[in-house]
Design goal:
By secondary structure, this protein is of the alpha+beta class. It folds into three domains: about 10-115, Orthogonal Bundle (Butyryl-Coa Dehydrogenase, subunit A, domain 1), CATH 1.10.540; about 115-210, Butyryl-CoA Dehydrogenase, subunit A, domain 2 (Beta Barrel); about 230-385, Butyryl-CoA Dehydrogenase, subunit A, domain 3 (Up-down Bundle), CATH 1.20.140. About 50% of the residues lie in helices and about 15% in strands. Strands 1, 2, 3, 4, 5, 6, 7 and 8 form an eight-stranded mixed sheet that branches. A hairpin with a 5-residue loop joins β4 and β5 (about 165-170). α7 (about 230-260) runs antiparallel to α8. The longest helix is centred in the last third of the chain and has 34 residues, at about 275-310. The protein is globular, with a radius of gyration of 21 Å. The relative contact order is 0.12.
């Protein structure tokens, strides 16, 4: 089962690029049906793009973060919801690899299994013989309708009244799905809610979160892997930052595809491409896209290089990974907004991609982890010598 010949970054990026026309073609269907169609899921699977963060022991690639970020950005260039869903599957498959070996054997026994995940601890586990009884509801559970397993954050109640943050691994078949994903953006990500009612979760499928967030992962066959030496939050943040970058690149592509022959109504400009305002707007937008790319690549490079060297992360470096996420998201949204505002009244039709791209990137900026101001504040606190005001660092 051990695959030592994982495809190169160039190969995987090429496969992702080949899927962009399929994603473009399906984007409107994906949005209207609020999930990925089976042919897209099959294409992602057949291309091996869902193996990037599956442990090598189970035929996965354990791809470095530069590769993961590049592939996710390409998928998001084709369709934002597909890029986001693939990002969540990558993070959650990686998280599953932190559980004990026997649990991984169970999860990855099914070839091509997809694992979704939630980081917000909105459920409580009460200790019972052999594990916990879990009660709670998780919103924003991306891709869960098309996944076999779920890594869900919760808290474990202790007899002294304290609560311990935990991550649990649950088969989707044991959760109740509430189809409530009716949203303005990222509609195709299928981020429905799931509910646990007195659900028994055996102890081996319960992971204490503080060691995971601190980068002190469980020992096991993955312990020596550079991918599993990387800290959780910088890994997750960089993966989702790539989605924002991909959407910004999609906006650039969509704008320039419609530019030839367009005029600026109620002006003397018969050709929008000849107007100085267009030159200023496009140059500004593309510069911001490049800046977003810098932040994604800086964070990805740091993850790869530190893991390869076995170096620990400082608090400031961890905060900077959050900053890179916030900055990439902010610059991407600014770029999309510039291009969207220059796209004319006809761009409001649902058949024109830029309006969907704009709603998708707006939705991303509202995500609690991705919100630019939250990340700027956190980084500024650490720069000023204060303690971070979150455990998610």
């Amino acid at each position: 089962m051990h695959d030592t010949n994982a495809p190169s970054r160039r190969e995987l990026l090429g496969r992702a690029t080949e899927l962009v026309p399929l994603l473009n073609k399906n984007a409107q269907w994906i949005e209207e049906n609020r999930r990925l169609p089976e042919d897209v899921v099959t294409a992602l699977t057949d291309a091996g793009l869902l193996k990037m963060r599956v442990p090598k022991h189970f035929g996965g690639y354990e791809s470095p973060m530069r590769t993961v970020a590049g592939v996710i950005a390409e998928l998001a260039r084709g369709d934002g919801s597909t890029g986001w869903t693939a990002a969540v599957w990558a993070i959650s498959s990686w998280m599953a690899g932190m559980f004990p070996d026997e649990v991984q054997e169970e999860v990855f026994a099914e070839p091509g299994v997809r694992v979704s995940g939630i980081l917000s601890p909105t459920a409580v586990g009460t200790p019972v013989d052999g594990g916990i009884a879990l009660n709670g509801k998780w919103g924003f559970n991306t891709g869960s309708l098309q996944s076999g397993w779920n890594t869900n954050a919760a808290v474990r109640a202790h007899p002294d009244g304290s609560f311990e943050p935990i991550m649990v691994l649950i088969p989707l078949s044991e959760l109740t799905v509430v189809d409530d994903w009716h949203t303005a953006g990222m509609r195709g990500s299928g981020s429905v809610s799931t509910v646990a009612r007195n659900l028994f979760v055996p102890e081996q499928r319960v992971l204490s979160m503080p060691p995971v967030l601190a980068g002190a992962h469980q020992p096991g066959r993955n312990a020596a892997s550079p991918v599993y030496k990387a800290p959780f939050m910088p890994t997750a943040c960089t993966t989702v930052a790539a989605v924002a970058l991909g959407l910004a690149r999609a906006a650039r592509e969509a704008f320039f595809q419609r530019l030839p022959g367009r005029k600026i109504s109620y002006t003397a400009y018969e050709n929008q491409a000849e107007a100085p305002i267009t030159h200023l707007t496009t140059a500004d937008a593309v510069t911001r896209i490049d800046e977003a790319g810098f932040h994604v690549l800086r964070a990805a490079g740091m993850l790869d290089d530190k893991a390869a060297a076995g170096e620990a992360w400082t608090l400031e470096e961890r905060a900077r990974a959050r900053l890179d996420l916030g900055a990439a998201t902010q610059r991407s949204k600014e770029a999309v907004d510039l291009l969207n505002s220059a796209s004319g009244g006809s761009s409001v039709y649902s058949t024109v991609p830029i309006q969907r791209i704009q709603r998708d990137v707006q939705t991303l900026t509202l995500h609690a982890i991705m919100h630019p101001a939250t990340n700027l504040e956190l980084y500024g606190r650490v720069l000023c010598g204060l303690e971070p005001n979150t455990h998610y660092i």
